[in-house]
Amino acid sequence: MDTIILDILKDISVKTDSKIVLVVLDGIGDLPNEKGLTPLESATTPNLDRLAVNSALGLMDPIYPGITPGSGPGHLGLFGYNPLRYWIGRGVLSALGIGLEMGPNDVAARGNFCTVDSSGKVVDRRAGRIPTELNAKLCEKISSAVQEIDGVKITVRPEEEHRFVLLLSGEGLGPHVSDTDPQKTGLLPLDPVALDESSKKTAEVVKKFIDIVKEVLKDEHPANMVLLRGFDKLPNIPSMREIYKLNPGAVASYPMYKGIARVVGMEVLKLEGHGELLEEKIALFEDNFDKYDYIFLHIKKTDSYGEDGNFESKVHQIEAFDAVLPRILDKKPDVLAITGDHSTPCVLKAHSWHPVPVLLSAPYLRYDPCERFTEKEALKGSLGRMYSMQLMPLMMAHAGKLKKYGA
Ligand code: ZN
């Protein structure tokens, strides 16, 4: 069904001057606290409230009811792709996110520096979240010790904190290799295992790589070992340019979100500083608004605070967004959607399967009684309950970018 929809959308999409903005407050959906209020309900949000009165609201299932999404699939849905059909490995997202070029034969994995004890068992899967500067030094140390294994070029590059990317470039590399991360402390790192015939060489190269790294890091502390996961090749996803005739731009700071934006054909705008400052993101949005007809603006911290179980900071982050919302509205996008890629309830300190509130501000809306952008208000919204992947065609239609289907 979903490929048929994409084919139809490709046929009926037209290029126009209207502009679409998608704001993703990562992990925005939540559950009530002891006072019976979610962060969205607790926050003071005069600007969002005013916008909600004149918008259409609803709830979206990012993947399918009951399925807890990762941020990758969560975003694919928001960009109009069925996340059950298209899959982007974490390694690929990370590699693209830090700007590594990937060829069609390359395999990427995400790495963690970790701490192991004298028996080799993992005691900290994130090596105490070492600073990014130390990460960069360790990646350099590894890079100078190993550039090639069995004719396969090895690239190791730092991400944030304890995370890095391993990129393998060469012939005959299948992407199906198991993770070496045991996911729990007190266990030995797992061996990389080829999950099919075509990935045997990849697994062998990775095994040799790990043996070398173990030696290189043996006197380091706390980062004396690595864990690898999410091996994958570039997926074959039709770009948003091709399907929707859009010229899409992305304002995002975390590597994974930049990566997924690139995979679907967005141009990722460059943040000058570290980029987690809301102010810097909004300024970049303002400066580039005229250049694009679709802008994806990603705000990460709502999710981070959800994962930390930090209700109060999640509330503050929502209020900080509310304070800059008028600057987005001042640009007068024809269609503006505000939503999340999934829920991250503070009480669970993790992503969850709960549907996410969505707000659609656009011309030609029907009656909608919602007065605030909250989970509870969204229940009575005119958008009802839908899948995240249905938001994109709706935004396109409201922006006047979809022709009639059939005579
Ligand atoms: Zn997320």
Describe the protein's architecture and organization.
The chain is an alpha/beta fold and 407 residues long. The protein has two domains: 2-86 and 237-398, Alkaline Phosphatase, subunit A, CATH 3.40.720; 94-232, Alpha-Beta Plaits, CATH 3.30.70. Helices cover 33% and strands 19% of the residues. The chain is built from 14 helices and 14 strands. It has helices spanning 2-12, 39-42, 46-53, 71-78, 90-97, 132-145, 200-216, 240-244, 255-263, 278-288, 301-308, 311-330, 375-378, 391-398, and strands spanning 20-25, 56-61, 107-116, 122-124, 148-149, 152-158, 163-169, 225-232, 248-251, 267-268, 294-299, 335-339, 356-361, 384-387. The strands form two sheets. An eight-stranded mixed sheet has the order 10-9-11-1-12-13-2-14, sandwiched between helices. It is globular and about 65 Å long. The structure holds zinc ion (ZN).
Give a nutshell description of this structure:
By secondary structure, this protein is α/β, with parallel strands linked by helices.
Helix share of residues? 25-40%
Bound molecules: zinc ion
Q: Tell me the Rg in angstroms.
A: 22 Å
Termini separation (Å)? 21 Å
Q: Unreliable stretches, pLDDT < 50, 5 or more residues?
A: none
CATH topology of the largest domain: Alkaline Phosphatase, subunit A
Structural class: alpha/beta
Assign the CATH class of the largest domain. Answer: Alpha Beta
How much β-strand is present in the residues? 15-25%
**What is the general shape?**
globular
